[in-house]
Amino acid sequence: MALVRVCAPLCRELARVFPQRPFALELWDGSKLAATEPGSPTFYVKRASALAHALRAPGVFGLGRAYVEGSLECDDLDAAFIVVDDWQPPALTGKDKARLLATLVLAAIPAGIPRRPRSELILKGERHSPARDAAAVRYHYDVGNEFFALFLDESMTYSCAIFSRGARTLEEAQRTKLELIAQKLELEPGQRVLDVGCGWGSFAIHAAREHGVSVTGITLSPSQAELARERVAAAGLEDRVEIRIADYRELGDEPFDAIASIGMAEHVGESQIDVYARTLYRMVKPGGVVLNHAISLMRPEEDPTADKFTMRYVFPDGHPLLLSRTQLAFERAHFYTEHIEGFMRDYADTLRAWHDRLDGHLEEAERIAGIERLRIWRLYLRAARHGFDVGYTAVYQTKVRKPVRDLTPKTSRVRGGD
After folding, report:
1. Average of per-residue pLDDT across 330-341
2. What is Dmax (Cα atoms) for the chain?
3. Residue-range domain boundaries for the chain
4. How far apart are CA 61 and CA 90, in angstroms?
5. From residue 403, how far is each of 29, 331, 334, 406 by CA, in Å?
6. Which helix (H) or strand (E) holds 352?
7. Which bin fits 391, alpha (ψ -120 to 50), beta or left (φ > 0)?
8. Which residues, 6 or more positions from 197, have their beta carbon under 8 angstroms from its beta carbon?
9. Alpha carbons 344 and 387: distance in angstroms, whole number
10. CATH for the 134-401 domain, from 3.30.428.10, 3.40.50.150, 3.40.50.1010, 2.30.29.30
């Protein structure tokens, strides 16, 4: 009965200050708060620590911590994102806020000060330094090759597939994407190609096998590199595909005929995007093509680094930029742009396929990665899909070319008149 006396007042207070509620609530002691709209999701507060997390880190971050810890559950994660994004609670008076906070604190007291979930990562050192970038990438990918294989297609392609050109399955859509990039790069037999952020080698293998080029792929993840090399050997392409563990800033090769960067620029960051573009300019031959495939923000006012959940649980230091900012970096590096194509809807469909596949292997996923990492990924894949569904984010393929002649500004250059 003691727990009921603690939790029931919280439900009554929530019902009073939020008379219209697109969600239901069930607390660990059996106290319930009904939704006022049909089809609303139900949030299950399993332990007082969920409320304590909400107090310690108000907003999405605290709720995410509670979900990862397992003290907060929901019967419909997709509907939960709509509630978090769309619900506008009524303005509360100072008195109402004080009463609600008091009842919330009282209900959370049994948990004390909650600890961060074990899976939470707080990186140290200078942001986007080579050492910190390596640590961030390894956190994300060291969840295990077996884990990713549960929801990716057979090519282990971990970027937006293209369904909008007739593909019916994830496998077909990824093949469509790989071939589209190869065509945009204008690949010809005998060329040397650089694959920046090569992942498990899907594009490198496709380009070498289907177009007769030689590919150097780089990644910061040892586990990715190990499997990529195995897949290259299995395809009989060891003489044409090399996989390295390297930072793009460390490259010192002779220039390549073409460069693919697929799903990597999101990790570069505002502080390094100009370095990234200049590096690609240096690494491609005059007249050569670079294809940059990357997620972009759609709202200039958004700060992706403010999303603490993503920063600490999914993509540490991930920083998708506005398309205009990426283009500015390429222009500053003296590339000229030939083509830009967006695939927002395709990425939503890709993520839907991924989270549905993961949901079909929950027991195996938990065995491989543990319950916290599984919860993180179930939440992340849906949150990312929701971002593309509603237009928070997009993905663009940008084709740029290095001029045949040096276009470094010279004071003597003749310019046209008006």
Report:
1. 97
2. 87
3. 2-111, 134-401
4. 21
5. 69, 11, 8, 7
6. helix 344-359
7. left
8. 218, 219, 248, 261, 262, 263, 264, 267
9. 10
10. 3.40.50.150
pLDDT band at 85, cuts 50/70/90? confident
- pLDDT tens digits for range 41-82: 999 999 999 999 999 988 889 999 999 999 999 999 999 988
Please, are residues 240 and 220 in contact by the beta-carbon 8 Å criterion? no
**Has residue 375 got a pLDDT over 60?**
yes
Q: Which residue has the tokens 């945009």?
A: 184
Distance CA 327, CA 340 (A): 10
Annotate 307-327 with three-state secondary structure.
CHHHHHHHCCCCCCEEHHHHH
Tokens for 1, please give them.
Answer: 């009965």
- For tokens 């994660």, the residue is 77
Looking at the DSSP bridge assignments, the partners of residue 43 are 25, 74
